[in-house]
Amino acid sequence: MGDGVLTKVIFFSWFFIQVLLSRNSSLETQIRRETEAAIRHLRSEAGACSCSRNAANECRECLLRGVTERLRDAGYNSAVCNSKWTTSSSIPKAGEHTYIDVVEAADGTKGPVRVVIEVCFRAEFEMARASEEYRRLVYRLPEVFVGKPEKLRGVIKTVCAAAKKCMEDNKMHMAPWRKSKYMQAKWLTPCEREPPRAALSPTEAAFSANRHRKPQASMLTFDLLDKLPGLHWPAVRVL
Ligand SMILES: *[C@@H]1O[C@H](CO)[C@@H](O)[C@H](O)[C@H]1NC(C)=O
């Protein structure tokens, strides 16, 4: 593939991503506003995460909890979500990922609406040995992603297709965790939603400890919690 073709691929990829990202529902817009304010505060000197001093993973961990709490305080059903998947015919490699989602009841007859929040979105696509064109594309991705799963899937597919073209162009092998299906699995496979950590009552603490031993029991446990008295967080179901 000549340079001109690659440049066109990158150009159209960016164009398509912009179209995808420019259409926001009011729920997405509100949640983005709240998320960005929370991150600004958490990252600031006065904030809880001291990201300039902490290691990147500690910072991320802190942002995940902090943003989730702030969204809950603002009335959203947000949770830290743990996804875990195995290798399958479509997903080239097993893995796991932790991020935030919000699940809200929609108006009318539609089911609940899910909004995915990734606090380090751009970093997920960065590659050390990428071509300049790919790097420029990734540079223009939002640092924080807030949006519905369909939008996220579209962006992932587009960026991964561009990555594939770039790698082919440079005759480089694309690692399995760079492939679209793997990237989609991070946020779009079923996830287990964590209950809030703050102010655990003894029942919740026991539940929380138990949960680490039996992660598969999530749906059952959530149903059970629904019926337990004295819990101050709304019961949620894994989608
Ligand atoms: C939708 O959100 C994006 C942020 O991802 C923003 O850049 C864009 O301007 C918004 N679109 C509209 C029409 O407000």
Order of helices and strands: HHHEEEHHEHHEHH
Radius of gyration, CA atoms, in whole angstroms:
19 Å
Ligand inventory reads: 2-acetamido-2-deoxy-beta-D-glucopyranose
The end-to-end distance, rounded to whole angstroms, is 42 Å
Average pLDDT, all residues: 83
**Spatial order of the strands in the main sheet?**
4-3-2-1-5
The total strand number stands at 5
**Main pleated-sheet profile:** 5 strands, antiparallel
Number of helices: 9
Gross morphology is: globular
Supply the helix-strand structural class: alpha+beta
Keywords: Signal
Pfam families: PDDEXK_6 (PF04720)
InterPro entries: PDDEXK-like
Provide structural commentary.
The protein has 239 residues and is α+β, with helices and mostly antiparallel strands. The protein has one domain. Helices cover 51% and strands 13% of the residues. Strands 4-3-2-1-5 form a five-stranded antiparallel β-sheet, sandwiched between helices. α1 (3-22) runs antiparallel to α6, α2 (26-43) crosses α3 and α6 (149-169) packs antiparallel against α7 (180-188). The longest helix is centred in the middle third of the chain and has 21 residues, at 149-169. Residues 204-239 have low confidence and may be disordered. The protein binds 2-acetamido-2-deoxy-beta-D-glucopyranose. 2-acetamido-2-deoxy-beta-D-glucopyranose binds next to α1.
